[in-house]
Amino acid sequence: MDQVLVNLFKGAEKVLGYPLDQYKTPEQKQDRWKRINAVKGFWENLEWMPNAKKLYQSITRYDAKVLSAYTNKDPNSKIGKMKWLSKNTNFKRKDIHLVLRSQKQNYAVSDGKPNVLIDDHPKNIKEWESKGGIGVHHTSVSKTMGELKRLGFK
């Protein structure tokens, strides 16, 4: 969801005044989350990523589901992501799985068949594939749609 459909980095930079990845030390990271936590509606009001609506429309022709990590550093992230999805997409609640990042890999296979994960983090893709799933490393909508087409999605 983050950096695939939702522009988390842009939203965080608006709050922090600096790119999210410039917060390196544990103290800086704690401060970053404190500042984000203080913004009412942060998660539910994030913008779409550029061209992400096109990707969303493409994947929803299939049995698409949302698998997104919430952070335990912000008690608002899980409910905020649910609100964003409810406001901006037509995913049914049963098709939305918000989990800790380390739990994503547990969804790699269903009924003995590999699932496809679109994710911007190489670590998530590696863990997903090690559990038998098919990973698509998202760097842009056009590249992701090309990879999905190569996998047989039209």
TrEMBL record:
Record-level GO BP terms: deoxyribonucleotide catabolic process
Naturally occurring in which organism (per UniProt): marine metagenome
InterPro entries cross-referenced by the UniProt entry: 5'(3')-deoxyribonucleotidase (IPR010708), HAD-like_sf (IPR036412), HAD_sf (IPR023214)
Protein name (record): FCP1 homology domain-containing protein
Pfam families: NT5C
Higher taxonomy: unclassified sequences, metagenomes, ecological metagenomes
GO molecular-function term, one example from the UniProt record: 5'-nucleotidase activity
